[in-house]
């Protein structure tokens, strides 16, 4: 094989083109990208990617939830393939690198290996995973959960469409059907061992690599995420006429719930002497949502993560105690639903070692690190050995329009991904 040459100019041009599949939303922080799963922008991005894959000579398969498998057949196609991939959906008002670097970097890595005359023994697949972000259906990593079998197909199909303005009764089943992804979700699941290995390239979404001047992070562990929904029912009424002593304001109760989360997460960090526990109430839906109407119902979505799922559960128990007290004191009801409570994931030593060798070959220093963001890799880990390659992003900023990774950082990561795939596909 000749030396692997990454076409950085093409890769960054394609990333910019992909960022164009969005509603144009000027923002003081930069051009915001919003690409919610199964919206017109997401479908256009998928069609465009499939076109590039076919142009490069790879075959494409799409499953019933829209997971898209771009395959380069190896010389021994009966062997389990090695896979890479990530997501192209983006939360509202996001940047243009989260997920997309892993997808476009994966395609570029495969094209570069092909151009270098590499002949893979194991097939190599690039997988675009559906809805890594929880924006539309309330749960992240939808496609990879279904692949791993950690989300039951009938439960998945019943997930309610949370898109603002969604028709009543709109669920994953109706939305995916309308988007052209038909058939039973049963067929999405892949057997343990279906892949020989999985490696995902991603921006760090944190500040450590940039701060330490390192071009590459090798992820050894992915923190365990959980999601909960709280529905607070109080009593509404006229904002002028309903007197303060008579109120059961659902939003006031919700505010106390939000602060309880913050209080117990901070207490967990003080107790552990780390910052490993994080908790965020990221949405708050107020009914009826009128300035002159006392809120009667509030729905909160809570995202809580920890490297230690037992400690995470301890925080939830403390929050539940407060929730019971808040409900009693304010005369409201508060119902909790667990959306997901996942385990952490650990990388494979073999794949981590392959990435280390790739870094050595490219003379790129690296550090081993924990991912505090979750990724589809967390669920791919249920069916095969995994690892992740991180590249620095400016100031560690992500999930914001000013998210930025430099073209040279993206090229470095893609080069490491390509040589890691070459090693794994030769094994
Ligand atoms: C996924 O984007 C996450 O929130 O970690
Ligand atoms: Mn994200
Ligand atoms: Mn991501
Ligand atoms: Mn993520």
How many β-strands, per DSSP?
A: 17
Looking at how many chains there are and whether they match, the oligomeric state comes to: single chain
Instruction: Please estimate the helix content.
Output: 25-40%
Question: What average pLDDT do the residues reach?
Answer: 97
Compute the gyration radius: what is it?
23 Å
Relevant CATH superfamily of the largest domain:
Zn peptidases
Distance between the termini: 16 Å
Number of individual domains = 2
Largest sheet: 9 strands, mixed
CATH architecture of the largest domain: 3-Layer(aba) Sandwich
Number of helices: 12
How much beta, percentage-wise? 15-25%
Shape: globular
CATH topology of the largest domain: Aminopeptidase
Order of helices and strands: HEHEEEEHEHHHEHEEEHEEEHEEHEHEH
Output the CATH class name of the largest domain: Alpha Beta
* Stretches with pLDDT under 50, minimum 5 residues: none
- Structural category: alpha+beta
Cofactor: Mn(2+); Zn(2+)
Protein name: N-carbamoyl-L-amino-acid hydrolase
GO molecular function: hydrolase activity, acting on carbon-nitrogen (but not peptide) bonds, in linear amidines; metal ion binding
Subunit structure: Homodimer.
Quick recap of the structure?
Residues 226-327 form the Peptidase M20 dimerisation domain. By secondary structure, the chain is an alpha+beta fold.
